[in-house]
Every structure is written in structure tokens, then in C-alpha cells.
Design brief:
Largest sheet: 7 strands, mixed
Number of strands: 30
Structural class: alpha+beta
Oligomer: single chain
Radius of gyration: 29 Å
Strand order of the largest sheet: 1-9-10-8-11-7-6
Strand content: 15-25%
Number of helices: 30
Helix content: 25-40%
Length: 1030
Amino acid sequence: MSPPMQFGVSRPRPSAAAAVALSLSVLARPGDCRQLLRGGVPLAAVTVRKPLADHRKYAYATLPENGLKVLAVEDERAAKAGFAVAVEAGSFYDPPEFPGLAHFCEHLLFLGTKKYPDEASFDGFMSVHDGSNNAFTEQERTVFYNEVGHSGFDEGMDRFAQFFIEPLFKQELVRRELNAVNSEHQKNIPDQGRRLWEILRRTARPDSVVSRFYTGTVESLHHGDAAAVAALRRYHNDNYCAPRMNLVMVSNMSTADQLLLAKKHFGAVPKGSCKATTDFGEEQAKKRQPPPFDAEHTGQYIRFGTNSTPAMWVMFPMSPTMKSYKEGPMQYLEYMLGYAGPGSLKSTLKKKGLITDLGLQADETSAATLFFVMYDLTPAGATSEGVKEVAESTFKYFSLLKSMPSEEVSSVYASLQKMSQVNFDYSEAPGSVMDAVSDLAGSLSRFPAEDILSGSFGLIDRLNVSMVHSLIDGLASQGPRGASIALAAPGAVTGAEKPTGFEKYYNIHFHQAPIPSDWMQDWNAKKQDAVSLALRAPPALKYVPVGLKVRNETAGLYPQHLSVKSPSSSGANAGSVELWWKGQGTFVLPKAQLRMRLAVSQAQENDARHEVLRRLHAELARQVLEAPTEDFQNCGMSFSIDSAGDGYRLGADGYDAHLGEVVLQALDGMLSPTFGAEELARATRQVTDDLADTTRKAPYQLAMDVVGSLTTDDKFDREQLLAEVAKVDEQQVKAYLASLKKEGLRVQLLVVGNMGKASAEDLGAKVAGRVDRLLSADASRKARVVVADRPVEVRMRNPIAGDANHATLNSYQYGVPDVSERVRMMLLGKMVENPVYDTLRTKKQLGYIVFGFVTEHVDVLELRVLVQGDKELPDSVDTDIEGVLQQFGADLRNMSLAQFSKWKSSIRSGLNHKDQNMGQEADRYWSQIANDGHCFNRKELALQYLEELSNPKDIIGMFELLRRRNRKVSVKMFGANADAALLARPASTTTGSQAPQPLLLVGANATRKRLGGKGSASFYPTAAACSIFA
């Protein structure tokens, strides 16, 4: 099961959310709070609580002109400047007659203001200044967040402030952008997690804000008519007032100068006459209204059919817990229910063959807290008896937690508090400034200023044993009557049954009734308690780090290559553990990051069967290691094991005290997994579900998988892999593992962080001792990319059943670059982003998902354009893409030196990006180790060439070469009810009068044909040049 989802709705500029903080807790004192900073912005008399080693400076203020709250963060390491606004209004504030209006308003603010009326001006400015932007709408807040090169900070702030000063809401743009909102909703419809979440929320009282649909559709927003525009303006006036806005800035500028910018640009945001932010729980109490989920709206069992993996969610509604963030009741509940060690709910149900995974999600709002226990079910678990047993175990487990003695509760709770303190003390920054300002702005709208770091992080400040006792007691005492269950499974509603309801926005025909009384009678009659069901409560955390020390050993600027041989490896192809040790780098913390690549022998067959065996092997390792390593993983250490076309990847990170032990335990579990028929059945089920459940990915992601299987020599298509999974048995897996030991593995290992050279060498020696045969680089496999020596077109159905979305992905191969070519392709990628987005997404409204970018596929650079939506068929979209690229080429030829200089500055900003955390630093080194390039100074070489690059003709020539080569691979996925268009042969869209006709591949199995016959395909080189000119 995927991690808990954030069900906000947003523009298609994705970025990962992460916590913000660094090292031991102190208070960040902004100086004498009685003084005024320059510009007359008074500092508020508060201190921001922050970790001790957090090098950043914070200043919190309220603009006297309008009451807008401001947080300025001075960060000398900031890769870019960032700024965000959280508006204290979201979908709970939608007028009932306009579901999705808050989200629609979020979209429209990007499309022109009185000062900057051009709808593309904001995106265009951000793009040319190495910037990005996004926004999302939650239930009680809407967050707009951005990052931009430092040179664009001042003007970027001005342009951004206009969103909140005087947006245009042009009628013609309202109707056009409504298509994007509708397309976003269409994208969400196949998502099973969202369907389950929506169907359970709708069990709330109909008059409650909790039950509302809030993405928006063409119909729910009245086709963007005059009434909708009037409602938009009212919504903006009623909610977008300065006192309900929270501005956050992060920059290398001083906090004083940042506050000056805030006053300069946001001081003009109207104060307005908005009401105070609503506390929906308090409002219910004042009006003496029942809670969203009273006795009449719980105890429900909802069933509906699905084409996805069977899943069951159990929802436990509770009174709001947001204000109890210092006590961390949700952290306690999540640990107790999510524990995966021996005797846990998760491990017990897995052993019974009822589930493949268990996940948790807590949705906290002022109206209610909704706690979800989310199960991925096996076919046995999806039967009526299976669902009954999973539900019984869940409720009995709560009874077990209720029966825990107070001293045990206190012990577990205290260990969680200690761990939360350690994690806060040594937490790291998110991967981008954009993520940082997004998180901080959301926190500023939720927590007092002094708690914006600790509150969002989940630091447990004080123990309240009676609170967690009361929480568990309430859930256990209410049992099934206080919860609701939703089941999504094939055949969940039988033909003899009539659906009792229809969810119109997600097109779900469902059956809803009270949880069967005979189930509850049976559960009570059995007199089985949790112990008799083999369930045990989790222990207190065992490995909370203490006495952490930071070592100052370092290899210097780049990792040092060390070689560790194994006594058992000999012969012509014998290798060693290729150990690279960096030691301390930019981030001096008591943590380390480890990366390991285990490449298989070239002698191993390169076919779909062996890829399946590698996937099963990796899944088996994860399965058998889950329970034994759970206590480590709950204490700040983690590992991952994944299969790849050329072998395996093992990663680990966390506090260094036990990290080596975790790595070796993971390696042992991978090299020699102990398993039988039961474990293999679970692994086979998981691999099958991952391949068969196409709803786990969006159509455009499935299209990218097709490009990978078509053009990479060690990738195979989904149908081939599914066919092979069905054939594999236990003896074949064991024979494969035996052959793996005999044939050997190439091992590359990187150690970054708080692990000294001697410790790293010792770890390398222990790794070498565990691998029976170590291979050299020449004897191991490496992925290769096929040269598309003629255009290729794949035409196939969207494999997500019933999904109306089409996906079109055009990939244009350039080749393996030297540093100069890489820089020029980076420039092209940056330049093409906005024309693609502005033309295909904003103007033509072809879909919600639209991107143009340059990416690295193994070692090959490719220009890619992708579009997902249901407005136009893929053949028309392909024509549109070619038209955009043709116009882009014309614009390139007319580019002035001044424009070229701006684009160079944008790329310079990107190249000067500083690592934001230890993981990024490790990944940067690892990319050069795993590909055998060892070009650790590539950034410096790129900057050197960029300074020498002075003629736009060099970029024009690069683009013309890319187009002239015409190594185009196009994947066209046709949505539901488009078979006639799928089977029609399109007119060629290849460029040039002498261009060869595309190789046309049709159908789900088209990629089995590959490019060129066996042995006849040509491949790109497997290593990029570490020089400016090759």
C-alpha cells in the first residue's frame, strides 16, 4: 500500500512535502522584540522554537497596514529564494451550491492580475528565473508556494502579491480553466484510495462540511457561468483578506531585508472585512449541533466493485485532536496500530493470508479527526469471511490496547516522546526551498508562531497518559458501532443485490447497510480475545539513540575510493567491494547515508523470467525482514531493497550507532532469505498486484513505463511479466538464488556521513565476506538504451479499465552527452517548459497533466513532452506537440542576446544549487558512482562551459540536430470508448520531407517487438564523458 495520501487538490507542479528542522532544541530569539526593523515592521514578541544546530534565523511579524502574518527565514544555504502564502480557507468554506469553488479559485489566481494581466506572465517569469510554483487546496487552508533564483526574488514577490491584491477572474479564462479543474477530477476518478476516502467521508451527516466533495467539476461549478463568476468574487472577498493570510519567505537575505520586501509587496493586500477563521468543532458546539458522525452515521458497511487490488478501509471518527498536538495522541495511535513486529496486527493478518499490507492515515481538522486503518487484501481476505475476520481482528486489537496496564502505556508513550525529541533534534531540511516554504506556511496557519517547527514535526512535548488512555478506551468501547467499513473488491456487490446508493462524482454504485448484526453477535459469542487471536501489543521503543556523537572524519571534497577484496573471490573476473567513503560532508549530524548496487553477472539470461525472479527475490527479502527489523526502523533507521534490470539496489540511512548492523541484516536477508510456500505466496501476490493493478499509476506514468520497456534492453512489458509470475514456483526461486551465488555479484558501496574510514572499511569487509563471488565491472551487467534509428509509434488502450483519459508521450532521443552537450540540453529543457505548458495546458486545455522537460534515461538525454487528458485524442495531441516544438524552434532562432543571457542565468542558478540535506548529498555522489562515470566535478565543468557559452546559435544548432535526427518514440494511450481511433492509422507527424515512416506498434503487447530484432539493435554507449568536449 502506498503511504498515506494527502487529499489536497492542486496544480500539476508536484513536489514532495517534508518536515523542516535541524539539530538540538533551543529558542530562536530575533533580538530585542521592542525594536522596529527597517521599514517600520514591528517584530512580534514571540520566539520560534527551533533545533540547536539549525543555522537559520527567524523573524515573525504582523504587517501593521493590514494584519497579514509574516515569517522571514534567513538561510545562507538556501539554493533559491522561496515564498508562500497559506490562506485560512479551503473546501469547508465552499458555498453548498458550488462544490469545488475554493479549489477553482486557487487555479484562477494564476491567470492574470490587474498589474500583470497576461495569463502566462507569472509562469513565464518564474521559468526564466529558475523558478517553480504550485498550490493546493485542503479542507481548511489553501497554500500557494514558489521558489525562484535569488535574482528574481524581489520581482517574483511583487507578481505573487498581486494574486491577493487584484486578480482578474476574466470570464473567458474562468470557463477555460474550468476544463483543467474537471480534468484534474477525471485524473482522480480511478484512484482507489481516493474513492474509498470519499465514500467513507460521505457517511457523515449531510449538513456537515466533512461530507463535501471539493475537487470541482464542470457541472458542480455551473459550467463557469455568470453565477459561478459572481460566487468566485464573493468567495475571494469573504476569505482572501490579509488577516487570514500567512506569508513565509526563505532566502539568503537578512530577515530585516525580507520583512522590508513583505511590507513593500504585501502591505497593499486588502485588509477586507472577513470573519475570523471558523473553528467548525466549536461552531457545532455553540449551535448545539450533533457531530459529523453521530450514532446514526457510524457502524456502516459499504461495498463496491473495483478493477484495482481489493482493499478495505476502517474509519474511526473522533472529536477533533488538532489542539492536542503537544501531547501527540495520533503519534501514539499510529505506532500502536502500525507496528509490524511479531504478534502485531499487521504481521498476524499477513501470516493468515488475509492482507498484503496495512497503512494508516489521520485526517485532523477542526470539525473532526478521522483515523483510517487501510488494508490491501488478498483474494481470501476479500471474501465475506475474510473481511469479517480482518474486521474482528481490528476491533479485538483495540480491546487489547485498552487492556494494557498503565505502566506499559506509560513506558511506550515515554519512549515515543524520547524518539520524537531525538528526531526533532537531528531532523533535516526538505529537498527544496519550495517544499520548505509550503510546509512552513501551512504550519503558520495551524500553530502558534513559536511552534511552527515543532508542531508540524510532531514533537511530543508533554505526556498525557490519561488522554491516550481515554482515546483508546473510547475507540475500543464503541467497537464496530463507532466505526465504518468500506470494501472495494471485484464482485463486492453481487448480481442479485441492488446497489443502495450512487456516488455521482466518482461514478460508484455501492451497497451500504449497518455492519451485519450476525457478525457482531458471532464476535461476541466466540469470546475470543486478542491474545487467542495471536495478537500482542507493541513494546516500548528499544533503540532510541542516546549519547550521540559527531565524528569529524572526512575524505575531503569528494568520496575516496577504497577496495575491499573477498578471500573467496578469484579468477579473471574476480572483483572486490568497490567502497567509496566520504565521511562528514556539508551536514554534520550523527547520521549516515549508505547506497549499495549489486549488479548481476552478464552470464545471467536477460529475459522477462529473470526480471520476475529478481522482483520476487526483492519482495521476499522485504517480507522476511519486515518483522525482525521493525524495532530498528521505528528508531530512526531505515533500509530499502529494490530490484533493477541489472540487479538490485540496497539503501540505508539514519543514526549511525546501529546502521551498519541494519545494513548487514538487510544484506543477509536479501542474499539468503529464509522462506517457504507461505512467504513465497505473499511475495507472489504483492508482485502480481503491483503489475496487474494499473490504477496504482496514472496513464502518463504507464506510458513512461512503455518507453522504458521499449528502449531499454533490461526492461520488459507488464503483460510479459504477469505471464512469467504465474509460472514461477518455489523450486525455481531457490534454483535462481543458488545460481545467483554461483554466478556472483558486483558490489558498489557508498558511505556518507557520521561513519569513520575504519568503520566503513570494516563494513565493506563484512559485506565482502557475505558475497560468495565478487564480480568485476566488466563481468557484470549494465543497462543499455536502444538507438531509435527510425521513429517509433506505439498505439494501445489505456490499461486502466473505464478510464476516459488519454495519454500521449513523445520522447526525442539525443544521445550520451559530454558536459557541453549536457549544458545545452539543460538550457533547452528549461526553455521548453513554459511554451509547452502555456500552449497545451493553459491555452488549449488539453489536460491537467502537461509537461515538457529534458531527462536522463540511463545515460541518454531525451527531450520529452507528455499530455494526459480527455479533451483530444492522442493523434491530435501529437500534432499539437509537434506544432509547439516547431514554434519553439522559430522562437529560438529569434532569441535576442538579452533573452539568452537570462536563460543562462537561470541555468547558472540551477547549477549552483546547494544540497539541502544529507540524502541529496549522498545521491549526488552516488549518481556518479553507480554509472561508473566518477565525474564528481561535473557541476564545476558545467559552470565553466556555461561562462564560455555566448552564442545562441549553439543552442539553436542543438535543437535543430535533435529534430533532424528524429529519434522519436511516441506512446499513444487511448482512453475508454476510443477503439476506433486507436485502430486508425494516423498521418505521419515526423519532421522532414525525407523522414522515414514510423515503426507502428499496436496493442498491449506491442513493446515485445522492441526496436530491431534480436541481436540487430544498436545501443548507445554506457558512460557519459567527464569532459567539456568529448
